[in-house]
Amino acid sequence: MSSEEWIETTTGNRISKLAQIYGSNSISINDHSTVNSYVLLQGDVPLLQQDESQTHTIKLGKYTYIGSNCQVIPPVLKKTHHGPIRIGSFTIIGADSIIKSASIGNRVLIEPNCTLLDLSIIYDCCLIRKGTIIPSKMIIPPFSEVKGVPGVDFEIKELNSSYKKIIELEAKNLHYLG
């Protein structure tokens, strides 16, 4: 990774110069997060209810890693209005994923090519396997492993509690080692 390809902030964030970030004033990125090339952060959408407490359309926790070609778009609430999206700390989003969830917890690993549809909620310490589609408004409980496509082979299993530390370490490694 050469410095010509990245913007590095004083809080340790690394953002690819090839990322597409719209509405940057409405996006909060906490310390040590990475936004890779060709990521779309769509922060310029109208919120359904906007008050002083809802100033950000997209909020990323610390050590969040977003893989190449991902789209992070706040969930649609009503035709042209959106709700905010919150992505917790130590969360990894694999390449080519589409994220429209209302909330993703801490220590979540989303493998490549996943789609999380409008208003879905992923609680803490979850593993979303490659190619999985999470339907709109679905709630995934903590410590879950999810895989498949609804109506075809969708499955939710319990995830071993040791993944809590494993996902956190992987998020830190991705930030520091790429």
Order of strands across the main sheet: 1-2-5-8-13-16-19-22-23
- What would you call the quaternary organization? single chain
Distance between the termini: 8 Å
Content-based structural category: mainly beta
What is the chain-wise order of helices and strands?
EEEEEEEEEEEEEEEEEEEEEEEH
Helix content: under 10%
Strand content: 25-35%
Biggest sheet record: 9 strands, mixed
User: Can you count the beta strands?
Assistant: 23
Organism: Hyphopichia burtonii NRRL Y-1933
Family: Belongs to the dynactin subunits 5/6 family. Dynactin subunit 5 subfamily.
Keywords: Cytoplasm, Cytoskeleton
Subcellular location: Cytoplasm, Cytoskeleton
Commentary on this structure:
The chain is mostly beta strands and 178 residues long. It has a single domain, classed as UDP N-Acetylglucosamine Acyltransferase, domain 1. Helix content is 8%, strand content 33%. The protein has one helix and 23 strands. It has a nine-stranded mixed β-sheet with strand order 1-2-5-8-13-16-19-22-23. It has a six-stranded parallel β-sheet with strand order 3-6-9-14-17-20, with no helix packed on it. 39% of the residues are buried. The model has no long low-confidence stretch (mean pLDDT 93).
